[in-house]
């Protein structure tokens, strides 16, 4: 199944300095919902793969994180968009699931029946690009969120993005040709 994996903060939602701690803080990146809806209409499975260490740190609990993702789904639904899968790593330390490790990406691809070589992972940070490379996915960088700053950083050769786009909508325009 054609699949696209997305980071949350900076790609789908506006990046906040200390991540989103309540549904009231959620704000979609302009054009992101329409881009996800376009993927949905094309029959592309869309999975969200996000690090949310605030749970492990005790800043928010799992119930609050679930409420944030429920509201995010409602916001997307207003644009006829949806995620086929939402995966979160709530660990505040290196684990096989926490990006830049590939565990969440491997899980998403396994659950959605996707092949790594055909699956882009769209992110805005070096750790997203590294996770994509470790999972043998296609690393894609967007300039929203921390993406412009990431573009100016030294990115390891193995994790260099195959493509850089201004935002998720621009990536989807190219992907859905």
Written account of the structure:
The chain has 7 helices and 6 strands. With 177 residues, the protein is an alpha/beta fold. A 6-stranded parallel β-sheet has the order 3-2-1-4-5-6, with helices on both faces. The chain is globular, with a radius of gyration of 15 Å. It starts with a strand and ends with a helix. The mean pLDDT is 95.
Keywords:
single chain; 177 residues; alpha/beta; Rossmann fold
Number of helices: 7
**Overall 3D geometry?**
globular
Instruction: Give the DSSP E fraction (strand runs of 2 or more residues).
Output: 15-25%
Mind describing the biggest β-sheet?
A: 6 strands, parallel
Separation of termini? 17 Å
What structural class results from the helix and strand content? alpha/beta
The secondary-structure element order is: EHEHHEHEHEHEH
- The percent of residues in helical segments reads 25-40%
Task: Indicate the CATH class.
Answer: Alpha Beta
**What is the mean pLDDT?**
95
> What's the domain count?
1
Radius of gyration, Cα only, in angstroms?
15 Å
**Poorly predicted ranges (pLDDT <50, ≥5 residues)?**
none
Any guess at the CATH architecture?
3-Layer(aba) Sandwich
């Amino acid at each position: 199944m054609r699949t696209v994996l997305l980071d949350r903060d900076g790609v789908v939602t506006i990046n906040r300095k200390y991540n989103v701690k309540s549904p009231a803080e959620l704000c979609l990146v302009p054009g992101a919902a329409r881009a996800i809806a376009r993927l949905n209409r094309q029959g592309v499975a869309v999975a969200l793969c996000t690090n949310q260490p605030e749970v492990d740190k005790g800043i928010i609990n799992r119930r609050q994180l679930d409420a944030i993702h429920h509201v995010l789904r409602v916001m997307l639904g207003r644009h006829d968009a949806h995620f086929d899968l939402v995966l979160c790593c709530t660990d505040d330390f290196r684990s096989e699931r926490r990006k830049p490790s590939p565990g969440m990406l491997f899980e998403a691809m396994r659950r959605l029946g996707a092949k790594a070589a055909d699956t882009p992972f769209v992110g805005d940070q070096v750790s997203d690009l590294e996770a994509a490379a470790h999972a043998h996915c296609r690393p894609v960088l967007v300039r929203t969120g921390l993406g412009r700053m990431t573009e100016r950083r030294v990115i390891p050769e193995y994790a260099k993005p195959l493509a850089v786009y201004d935002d998720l909508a621009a990536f989807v325009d190219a992907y859905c040709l």
